[in-house]
Amino acid sequence: MNIRSIRPNKVTIPAKNGIGASQIALPEGVWKTYEEFLTERFSVLSEKEWRQRILNGEVLYADGNPVLPLSPYRAGQKLYYYRYLPNEDNIPFQESILYQDDWLVVADKPHFLPVTPSGKYVRETLLVRLKAKLGIDTLTPIHRIDRETAGLVLFSVKPEGRNLYQRLFRENFVSKHYEAIAAYRNDLVLPMRYKCRLEQGDTFMRMQVVPGKSNTETEIRILERHGQFAHYYLKPVTGKKHQLRIQMCSLEIPILNDRIYPVHLPEAVTPQMRQEEYKYPLQLVAKSIRFTDPISGKPRYFESRYSLDLNNIESKINRTSLFTHE
């Protein structure tokens, strides 16, 4: 690939403390000031709080100049603002950087840390942490793994290389494997290539197995067995949402400490609930990834430092999420 032929995208609004600026188009309306509009549109903050953010230079015009307090509202333009939550909880687990060059960053993500901002997570996400740590505003995830899953996540450094790396995942030019601990079934013949059809489930959070032509495929084999549990090697051929979690559950060997399958447990919303959740991480790790680098043409192989251990497995079980095959 000739990199000279790729046109870079200009970044006009810089990140602040690792948080990229969000954009909003201003509609016609009767608002007198930007504070009034922002308060109505994003009512989680009061007008006083929006005014303070404007004073702090956290609301900008499209040209990057800061909005001044009590400026008259003008429709038809765009504003940029920095989204953060005033009382966002700290996630007490740290990521590490396994590799970095001019085009690629490979991070090892801990359990419980989201990859990108969403919902109640903004500052405490892998993307924002890495942007703040590395000072790279253009950093973009090439793929995602679940908040509950630990392991490898790749990031594109330059906008002009982003699509080249993302194409590897879109067109299945990446070989990756996960490892998991789950219940052991002596009537399940392994190794196997498990195929099924996944579609959106009854809620946004859940997928479900449905009849029809398969759209997912995973190689499953056992690395080690200890009593009624086993250490599994999982190699997905496809990349559907929650693919490994729902496939293992449909085989009646759900991954240990899964809070979504087979039963969607309540979200941990209090400090006490979060501390309890932290004791029992999902026993799933994005362990390795292999591909040919589209920029350099070199073979790449990365392996997570996170590992799973069947020793003392009884102490790692969250009994409220345990489900074994009868």
Automatic annotation (TrEMBL):
It comes from the Bacteria. Residues 104-248 form the Pseudouridine synthase RsuA/RluA-like domain. It holds the Pfam family PseudoU_synth_2. PROSITE patterns: PSI_RLU (PS01129). InterPro entries: PsdUridine_synth_cat_dom_sf, PsdUridine_synth_RluA-like_CS, PsdUridine_synth_RsuA/RluA, RluA_PseudoU_synthase. This is Pseudouridine synthase.
